[in-house]
Amino acid sequence: MAPELKTSATLGSVFESIDPDNPDFLQLQRIVSKLVPFGTHAGTEITEIGPHRAIVEIPDEPYILNHLRTVHAGAQFLAADIAGACAFVGALASRLSAIDTLVLRDARLSFRKPAIGRIRAIGVIDPSDVATVLAAEGGRRLDVDARALMYDTAGVLVGKVSLDYVCTLAAEA
């Protein structure tokens, strides 16, 4: 893990430079790209973070393939998880400073077709969960549901992932 991230007490403290009234989504993308070293190691790339979705791509590289020469399920899951977490960051950009933690608790995966080539995972957060987190008082622990749809270079849906996160809010002073 990057040294500057090891000392952070909360997830929200990583985003101190973000203006909650006018979030810079490109800056969010740069910050989040450093949060998951394994994603960098695996070659995932966060290509978009916005208020409504996030996109993470898996490269078309031999080291990502399984023995059938399709994209390994683990790589697909990694991209989906990162896309879901990034969608959370984008959707909650105005409240990031109040977030203590975001942890994946459960996931359900459905691989629809063999994943071949560059894979794009599009993550979204349940809008009602976004509203709940935005309105919640500090010190709460909340469930947040996300989903990621994965597409190949031809735009074919190759996988669906449901992600159940738990988010904790910092206690109010």
Helix content: 25-40%
Rg estimate, integer Å: 16 Å
Largest sheet: 6 strands, antiparallel
**How far is the N terminus from the C terminus?**
30 Å
Give the helices and strands as they follow along the chain: HHHEEHEEHEE
**CATH superfamily heading:** Hotdog Thioesterase
The number of distinct β-strands equals: 6
Strand order of the largest sheet: 1-2-4-5-6-3
Shape: elongated
User: What structural class do helix, strand and pairing data support?
Assistant: alpha+beta
Fraction in beta strands: 25-35%
The top level CATH class name = Alpha Beta
The CATH topology assignment is Thiol Ester Dehydrase, Chain A
Structural domain tally: 1
CATH architecture: Roll
Query: Which regions have little confidence, pLDDT < 50, spanning 5+ residues?
Result: 1-7
The pLDDT mean sits at 92
Discrete helix count: 5
What would your notes on this structure say?
27% of the residues lie in helices and 31% in strands. The protein has a 6-stranded antiparallel β-sheet with strand order 1-2-4-5-6-3. It has a single domain, classed as Thiol Ester Dehydrase, Chain A. The two termini are 30 Å apart. Strand 5 (141-151) and strand 6 form a beta hairpin. The longest helix is centred in the middle third of the chain and has 19 residues, at 73-91. It is of the alpha+beta class. Pfam families: DUF4442. This is Acyl-coenzyme A thioesterase PaaI-like protein.
